[in-house]
Q: What sequence folds into this?
């Protein structure tokens, strides 16, 4: 660390910063070694802050502007194999351009941390948020987390290295941040001090898997059918172990920093006695909470469950939270053309998770807020009305509804 | 009969077209008798490497259901006939993505037949073939292994001779008449058809009894499971090398303990250590790092690594200092340098005899030499 | 910039180091010249080296799981990623050493690619790597003139007219590959003037090869070496001629041996004597007729091929390297 770096983060303080800036500061606090950038809105704001921190001597890292997203992810992948702490990120089709590198990073069990500034996929080109970019890696061995606030972005980034670099896990971690609403909006954020971060997050140690002349290993030789199932099984086990490591990391976070969320997996809002529970991910939480407060004033028993980790999926926690309500309305900021019930990605995973329950709530899928369109309070009301109607009639007339779309 | 399965064991690339001609012709011939069949190369052998053993299969059945019964396991677990188109593979084969040496007759059913193209007498071949507890038959087609490359096929009728012989040793498969009719349909010339007929007329079988053959236990390898495999797709590198045979002088690279390349080899270098001028070229230009540097500065080809490419022979500036000799002449992988150290005179006699025999036999071709070359070779082989 | 190792130039073929860092366990074709490139490359570099290998023969046939020929640390990288792999590895070493997270020492970083990975897909990442003059790294392209691993498909580095599974001579179209081989090394040299070292070589010339690898690793900054590799499988010849065909490629003037050191061009070996007029170029027919991939060519095809090679020696601004020149004043 540079002297400026040490001085700058000597004491805990409050800053007015965006989600992107919060993650850039997390990079400096975590003393990340190699960072790669390539411009695409909205994620690239994080790299603008990183480069400024570096330019001002507030952060010592090798900051490489790659010539494509594919190279961006390949560079950090290889840096991570040598034992460097790494960070990169992308958005929309940029994330897809890097997809080959993204998938091998998980296959290689490398704890790269990436920020996805969620953005709609081309064509047509659009800057606004949709979750389909990050969701594309849901089956590949990446841990996938959706944050809702700038504070959560900073905290989650620190937790991401902690969890990903745990030798029991060694899997990459994507911190998903809604474009614009999180990447570009500023909020008051408590920035922890250096010392505590060092205590929480010691250096990454690749151990016996480090690529170095002192440890001459061969990494990722070609395999045939004699081997691949065993290798896939290892990655599956690592993801399974992550479900143990994640709560441990959150507990330690609370111990070190004296704050933190009650559950790493989900955030519940007025769900305790709720008959209708809405479910969603990311910044959607805010308008939904506002709507629910108003509905509660009218005596409607409505609650909200925010899914934080999409991978590993919090099957048990979500089952427990949803088993007692009468209807669940899942608001997806994504689409899955031709999927079961033409439902959103979150909806279908959630419905599958609840299937083994003896008693199912009625489940309705809603597609909303695509391409950065705002999800308004009135939209949430419409969702709640449809859920209520299903409860009243005991049947679901329409399994999937697109909200606030012109006909 | 229900189903008949035939495998062709061949050297990758060099004999790919040959193997393909054989398995496809079998299926076409079966169609002539109203049967149904399939022909395919083993996916695990692809992409093929020059010289590395590979397999293609033909499976023929009376009905589609019977064929399906057999295809439920993609790769045949046993075959009625094994056709080996290079006799040096009688010592066993290892595909490029596999571990462990597989006996050439591993899939041959009890009472089935192993057809080999070879100039060796049966007794010599049997010495190489791993013994087994059930009897099988050996049938030899007297010819030199036919090697082509990827693009230009050496049409020396080897495929015809094998198909003719196959009809003889496995009458349950297809009749010679059906085979001839199918070949004719494919535009095969009368000269080539007569090669098939001749092979049919002349082919005989010799029973190989249980206990006959090589007593070597083929190298095998137990695959570890996910709990014992290292995570992160990591395997340990090869150790650093050191002195020759563990001594202080010379140099010997450490070598891979689980994969030996020698079943790729159809020839091996024989070195005249007395005429060697220690120019280092054989050692330097070997793509397989197979030369150990002896304490006296000579180069000893290690037969666990050598795959018989012949580069050492062609770069050696001293005439006859390195000679590539047919692999069939050898029964072990022992060090030539050690034999020479032990008894230089005996070594010289052994070496001279081998080299002379090789030179008399003429070139054992590993594929394309120059445009028009195959035509000359085929003409020469007819003359003899 | 981090320091480099002391790897002196080798004088005389007999002084090439005896230690091996690429041994047995690979499953390449008989007579594979690219396997020889791997071996001589790490022999020149020594033990304190990390090798990154992009997809291709030298990945698939070389390292088959649970088996490896590598003594030095080695890692796979994606087909188009040799430039990124080298950059990422070198950056990690530089960063961690600077911050005291790793012991300070010069470690060679070598990334290799075939012509598919280097001349085609990975060109942009290689170009980017050559701009990062703060990192010491070497990218070596083993050019066997086709996608050899996937079963010999034509690449941007395949010669005109060559048979491949994507350019088979047919009844109507005899010549399916009508592209002339891409001029990769000069393009990289001209395009990255701060890159201190770009060279071509061929493993048939073991000493030339060894010294070029060493110069590339010790000059500082990113470097590129392009290696001409006869491929017995795809070119279709008896594997014992790998060495000879490498020499023939150079003696016919198809492949030019040179190095560009700190902005100065030096021709080497037969290419030098050809350029000086001491030695005549052999006719390309001698080279073409030795390979099954050209067996379908007619006299006219060979003549065309010869004329193209003649043109590169007689009409190019820098023979064999730079195809354009200044327009002459009228």
A:
């Amino acid at each position: 660390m540079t002297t400026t770096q040490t001085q700058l983060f000597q004491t805990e303080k409050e800053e007015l910063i965006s989600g992107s800036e919060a993650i850039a500061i997390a990079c400096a606090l975590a003393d990340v070694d190699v960072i790669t950038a390539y411009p695409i809105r909205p994620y690239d704001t994080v790299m603008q802050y990183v480069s400024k921190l570096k330019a001002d001597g507030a952060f010592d890292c090798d900051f490489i502007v790659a010539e494509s997203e594919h190279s961006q992810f390949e560079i950090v992948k290889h840096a991570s194999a040598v034992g460097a702490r790494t960070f990169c990120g992308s958005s929309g089709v940029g994330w897809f351009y890097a997809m080959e590198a993204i998938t091998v990073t998980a296959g290689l069990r490398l704890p790269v941390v990436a920020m996805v500034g969620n953005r709609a996929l081309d064509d047509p080109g659009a800057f606004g948020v949709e979750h389909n970019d990050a969701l594309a890696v849901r089956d590949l061995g990446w841990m996938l987390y959706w944050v809702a606030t700038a504070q959560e972005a900073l905290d989650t980034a620190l937790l991401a290295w902690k969890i990903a670099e745990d030798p029991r896990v060694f899997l990459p971690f994507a911190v998903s941040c809604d474009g614009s609403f999180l990447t570009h909006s500023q909020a008051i954020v408590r920035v922890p001090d250096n010392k505590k971060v060092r205590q929480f997050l010691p250096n990454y140690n690749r151990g016996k898997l480090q690529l170095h002349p002192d440890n001459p290993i061969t990494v990722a030789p070609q395999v045939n059918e004699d081997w691949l199932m065993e290798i896939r099984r290892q990655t599956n086990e690592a993801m399974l172990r992550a479900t143990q490591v994640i709560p441990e990391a959150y507990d330690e976070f609370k111990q070190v920093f004296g704050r933190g969320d009650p559950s790493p997996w989900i955030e519940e809002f007025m769900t305790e006695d709720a008959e209708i529970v809405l479910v969603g991910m990311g910044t959607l939480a805010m308008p939904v909470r506002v709507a629910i407060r108003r509905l509660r004033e009218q005596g409607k028993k409505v609650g909200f469950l925010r899914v934080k980790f999409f991978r590993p999926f919090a099957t048990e926690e979500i089952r427990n939270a949803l088993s007692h309500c009468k209807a669940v309305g899942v608001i997806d900021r994504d689409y899955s053309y031709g999927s079961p019930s033409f439902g959103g990605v979150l909806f279908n995973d959630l419905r599958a998770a609840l299937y083994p329950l003896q008693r199912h709530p009625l489940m309705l899928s809603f597609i909303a807020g695509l391409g950065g369109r705002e999800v308004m309070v009135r939209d949430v009301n419409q969702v709640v009305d449809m859920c209520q109607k299903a409860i009243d009639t005991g049947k679901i007339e329409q399994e999937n509804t697109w909200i606030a779309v012109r006909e | 009969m229900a189903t008949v399965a035939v495998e062709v064991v061949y050297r990758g690339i060099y004999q790919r077209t040959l193997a393909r001609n054989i398995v496809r012709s079998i299926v076409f011939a079966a169609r002539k008798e109203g049967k149904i069949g399939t022909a395919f190369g083993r996916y695990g052998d692809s992409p093929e490497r020059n010289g590395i053993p590979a397999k293609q299969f033909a499976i023929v059945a009376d009905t589609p259901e019977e064929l399906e019964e057999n295809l439920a396991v993609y790769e045949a677990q046993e075959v009625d006939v094994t056709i080996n188109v290079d006799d040096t593979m009688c010592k066993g084969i290892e595909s490029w993505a596999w571990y462990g040496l597989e006996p050439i007759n591993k899939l041959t059913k009890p009472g089935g037949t192993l057809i080999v193209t070879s100039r060796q007498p049966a007794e010599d071949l049997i010495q190489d073939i791993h013994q087994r507890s059930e009897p099988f038959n050996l049938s030899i087609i007297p010819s030199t292994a036919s090697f082509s490359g990827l693009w230009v096929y050496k049409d020396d009728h080897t495929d015809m001779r094998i198909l003719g012989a196959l009809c003889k040793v496995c009458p349950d498969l297809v009749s010679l008449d059906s085979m001839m009719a199918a070949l004719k349909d494919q535009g095969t010339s009368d000269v080539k058809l007569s090669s098939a007929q001749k092979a049919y007329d002349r082919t005989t079988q010799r029973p190989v009894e249980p206990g006959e053959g090589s007593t070597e236990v083929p190298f095998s390898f137990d695959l570890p499971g996910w709990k014992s495999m290292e995570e992160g797709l990591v395997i340990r590198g090869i150790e650093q090398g050191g002195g020759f045979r563990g001594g202080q002088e010379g140099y010997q690279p450490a070598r891979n303990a689980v994969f030996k390349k020698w079943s790729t080899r159809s020839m091996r270098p024989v070195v005249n250590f007395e005429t060697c001028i220690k120019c280092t070229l054989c050692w330097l230009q070997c793509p397989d790092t197979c030369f150990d540097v002896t304490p006296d500065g000579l180069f000893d080809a290690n037969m666990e690594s050598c795959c018989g490419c012949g580069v050492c022979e062609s770069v050696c500036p001293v005439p006859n200092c390195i000679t590539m000799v047919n692999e069939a002449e050898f029964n072990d992988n022992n060090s030539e340098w050690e034999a020479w150290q032990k008894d230089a005179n005996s070594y010289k006699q052994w070496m001279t005899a081998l080299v002379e025999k090789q030179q008399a036999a003429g070139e054992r071709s590993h594929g394309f030499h120059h445009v028009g070359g195959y035509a000359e070779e085929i003409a020469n082989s007819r003359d003899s | 910039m981090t320091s480099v190792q002391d790897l002196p130039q080798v004088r005389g073929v007999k002084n090439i180091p005896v230690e091996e860092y690429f041994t047995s366990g690979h499953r390449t074709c008989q007579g594979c010249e690219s396997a020889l490139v791997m071996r001589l490359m790490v022999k020149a570099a020594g033990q304190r080296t990390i090798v990154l290998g992009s997809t291709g023969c030298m990945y698939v046939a070389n390292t088959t799981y649970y088996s490896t020929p590598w003594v030095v640390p080695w890692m796979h990288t994606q087909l188009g990623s040799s430039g990124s792999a080298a950059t990422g590895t070198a950056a990690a070493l530089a960063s961690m050493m600077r911050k005291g997270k790793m012991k300070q020492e010069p470690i060679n970083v070598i990334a290799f690619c075939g012509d598919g990975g280097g001349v085609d897909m990975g060109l942009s990442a290689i170009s980017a790597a050559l701009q990062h003059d703060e990192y010491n790294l070497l990218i070596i392209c083993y050019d066997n003139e086709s996608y050899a691993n996937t079963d010999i498909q034509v690449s941007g580095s395949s010669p005109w007219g060559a048979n491949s599974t994507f350019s088979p001579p047919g009844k109507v179209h005899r010549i399916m590959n009508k592209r002339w081989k891409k001029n990769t090394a000069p393009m990289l040299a001209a395009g990255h003037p701060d890159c201190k070292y770009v060279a071509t070589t061929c493993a048939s010339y073991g000493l030339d090869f060894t010294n070029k690898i060493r110069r590339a690793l010790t000059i500082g900054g990113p470097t590129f070496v392009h290696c001409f590799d006869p491929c017995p499988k795809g070119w279709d010849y008896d594997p014992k001629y790998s060495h000879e065909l490498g020499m023939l490629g150079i003696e016919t003037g198809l492949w030019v041996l040179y190095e560009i050191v700190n902005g100065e061009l030096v021709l080497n070996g037969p290419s030098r004597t050809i350029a000086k007029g001491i030695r005549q170029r052999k006719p390309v027919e001698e080279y073409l007729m030795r390979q099954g991939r050209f067996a379908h060519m007619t006299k006219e095809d060979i003549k065309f091929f010869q004329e193209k090679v003649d043109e590169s020696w007689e009409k190019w601004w820098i023979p064999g390297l730079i195809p354009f020149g200044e327009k002459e004043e009228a």
User: Anything to note?
Assistant: Chain A has two domains: 3-257, 267-402. Residues 228-257 of chain A form the longest helix (30 residues). The CA atoms of residues 23 and 238 of chain A lie 25 Å apart. The interface with chain C takes residues 1, 31, 33-34, 36, 60-62, 64, 66-68, 70-71, 74-84, 86, 100-101, 104, 203, 211-213, 215-224, 226-227 of chain A (CB under 8 Å).
